[in-house]
Specification:
By secondary structure, this protein is an alpha+beta fold. It has a single domain, classed as Lrp/AsnC effector binding domain/regulation of amino acid metabolism (RAM) domain (Alpha-Beta Plaits). It is built from 5 helices and 4 strands; from the N terminus they run αβααββαβα.
Length: 117
């Protein structure tokens, strides 16, 4: 059986071939109150530098007990730029984790529709 594309066809047609999704966990330092964290992030230029211009934000959520979870669509050639924006402006305010990610929603929905009967 042929596997359907994980990304809806309309979205896949618009996405450059060299992009990937990158999910970043920005974990709060719970030993410090949020105003102090934000003060440090402002001083380091986080809000100006992240995400770098032209990098698409797919989602940006607050996950209670974790911090913020950001998913970006990143051209492969710009991965270093995204990493450097985090290293130079987010560290100290956040502990960071990076996860290459892919969109599975359309495939999961199709599998549930076909195989979940």
């Amino acid at each position: 059986q042929e596997m359907p594309a994980a990304v809806p066809a309309a979205r896949a047609a618009n996405a450059p071939d060299d992009t990937f999704l990158l999910t970043i966990f920005l974990r709060h330092d719970e030993s410090r109150p949020l105003p102090k964290i934000n003060e440090q992030l402002r001083a380091q230029g986080f809000f100006k530098a992240f995400p770098p211009p032209g990098i698409e934000v797919v989602s940006w959520y607050v996950m209670m007990g974790i911090g913020q979870v950001v998913t970006l669509r990143v051209p492969a050639s710009r991965l270093r730029e995204v990493n450097r924006a985090i290293e130079t402006t987010a560290w100290g305010g956040y502990r960071t984790e990076f996860y290459p990610t892919y969109d599975y929603k359309a495939l999961a929905q199709q599998m549930r529709a076909n195989d979940g009967k």
